[in-house]
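Milestone 3.1: sequence recovery, worked example.
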């Protein structure tokens, strides 16, 4: 391993130590991306001297800053420290109204339908009665008593 390879390995080891709080998959991805970026920069610039490799590593930035930037990316899962005490599950909010059961719904529909039927039947019977006029009831003969004789003129 050359002196420049040792510089790159030491830099990546610092990044890996700083990235210990990241999930293992994200940490490996970050190290792999940095290694690839360093190799591309070395091949494009023809950096073979120690000073050239140090310049490339300085341009990348401080390992802690790189890890902090990788940790703040929103599409990555975050590692959060465990809670000191187990938290209770949230209590569900009470419903604003009670749901109506199917049976109660259909009973209500049946009562409403029966009320409508009774109302229209009553209206129909009343109309028929009004068309026939008053019922012909036999009138009992009125017994008339003979008038008492009048006492005066």
């Amino acid at each position: 391993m050359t002196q420049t390879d040792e510089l790159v390995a030491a830099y990546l080891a610092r990044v890996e130590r700083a990235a210990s709080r990241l999930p293992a998959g994200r940490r490996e991805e970050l190290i792999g991306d940095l290694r690839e970026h360093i190799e591309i920069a070395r091949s494009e610039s023809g950096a073979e001297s120690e000073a050239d490799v140090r310049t490339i590593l300085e341009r990348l930035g401080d390992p802690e800053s790189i890890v902090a930037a990788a940790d703040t990316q929103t599409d990555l899962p975050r590692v959060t420290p465990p809670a000191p005490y187990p938290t209770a599950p949230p209590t569900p909010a009470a419903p604003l109204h009670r749901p109506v059961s199917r049976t109660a719904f259909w009973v209500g529909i049946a009562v409403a339908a029966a009320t409508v039927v009774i109302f229209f039947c009553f209206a129909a019977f009343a109309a028929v009665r009004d068309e026939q006029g008053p019922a012909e009831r036999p009138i009992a003969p009125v017994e008339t008593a003979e008038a008492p004789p009048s006492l005066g003129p």
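The two ends are 163 Å apart (CA to CA). The chain has five helices and no strands.
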